[in-house]
Specification:
8-stranded parallel beta barrel, TIM Barrel, 13 strands
Length: 340
């Protein structure tokens, strides 16, 4: 069995071809797609966070709203850029959203990717400490956040408070039990995957990573997953970790599918640069008739190694079509591969 969810970037634009023409459209349609995915039997509804962009940016109101509308589906992020986050405020927001959802949050966090503006985190009031890079700052914020999720008191109480306090040092409220074990790190390199394992975070591996060997993307990603699991075992954690990979997969079932995705434009890995120094490999997309998809996906080593698969969806094509994309994989592809 494999958990299968969708991952939406929440794009919106007022262009004529878009069915998601405003920020309100992106948010409200995200809720409706999560509801539809739960009804179809999908396991997760995940959302990417980007600042200064016509995309989803403030995840916790959205996650809480979905939590109030659904009962079973996992609700998560992939990923929140920790360079922009106040870990204390984030602990409160995530705790509230997780309680509303009944303990279903799966929080993917990371140091982030190149953004729409230069050093956007500076506008949010954050600066790397002396000797730090912005990536170091993001990892530092993440470690503070993880410590806060343990729910241990750390703040000295006022001897004359407005309301009575429990004994001892105070923690942030509301506290969500178990959320600490449902935090994932989006790792772009093998070294950060190992670091995430040492800290006891689950692993999210995206549709791109640093090109560390020149091998095909899915092979490098599978090697990253193996390195992560070895580091997890060496760290002595008691629970089993979870690992997700993201893929663009489209089953060509009807004329709409063939019109949108039947041209084979990204059926090979691509090489590019995510910044001036970092050479990256971008994984291929899959778009074919279901029987062909089954054969292709059976050869993807990273999908085989992961317990969770996130399907990136073209959210601007509307809720109905995106529900169709998810349903096609659940119905026509997943059973033949033993994922269902």
């Amino acid at each position: 069995m494999k958990k299968i969810g969708f991952l939406s970037f929440g794009h919106w634009t007022p262009s004529p071809g878009s069915q998601t023409r405003s920020a309100a459209d992106a948010l409200l349609q995200s809720i409706e797609l999560a509801v539809a995915a739960e009804e179809l039997g999908a396991d997760g509804a995940y959302f990417r966070v980007h600042h200064f962009a016509r995309q989803l940016a403030s995840p916790f109101p959205l996650l809480a709203a979905i939590g109030a509308r659904t009962k079973r589906i996992e609700i998560g992020t992939a990923v929140i850029d920790m360079r922009y986050e106040n870990p204390l405020y984030m602990a409160e927001d995530s705790g509230a959203a997780d309680l509303i959802a009944g303990g279903r949050l799966q929080l993917g966090i990371s140091r982030g990717s190149p953004e729409q503006v230069i050093d956007g985190w500076r506008y949010f009031g954050y600066r790397p400490e002396e000797g730090e890079s912005d990536a170091d700052m993001g990892r530092r914020h993440a470690q503070v956040f993880l410590d806060l999720l343990r729910g241990e008191g750390f703040a000295k109480p006022n001897p004359r408070p407005m309301f009575p306090n429990p004994p001892g040092l105070l923690r942030l409220e509301p506290h969500a039990p178990g959320l600490r074990e449902r935090v994932w790190w989006g790792a772009g390199a093998n070294a950060t995957a190992i670091w995430a394992a040492q800290l006891g975070m689950n692993l999210q591996s995206s549709t791109l990573k640093e090109d560390e060997s020149g091998k095909p993307f899915h092979v490098q990603q599978a090697e990253q997953i193996r390195a992560y699991r070895e580091a997890w075992k060496a760290a002595g954690h008691r629970r089993e970790p979870r690992v997700s990979v993201s893929r663009s997969i489209f089953a060509l079932i009807d004329d709409r599918d063939r019109a949108y995705f039947g041209r084979g434009r990204q059926d090979e890995d691509q090489i590019g640069f995510i910044d001036e120094k970092t050479r990256a490999i971008f994984g291929r997309s899959y778009a074919a008739e279901p029987d062909v998809l089954v054969r292709q996906l059976a050869e993807d080593e990273a999908i085989a190694a992961a317990d969770t698969l996130l399907l990136t969806v073209p959210n601007q094509l509307g809720v109905d079509y995106n529900a169709h994309v998810v349903e096609a994989i659940l119905t026509h592809v997943a059973p033949a591969l033993g994922w269902r």
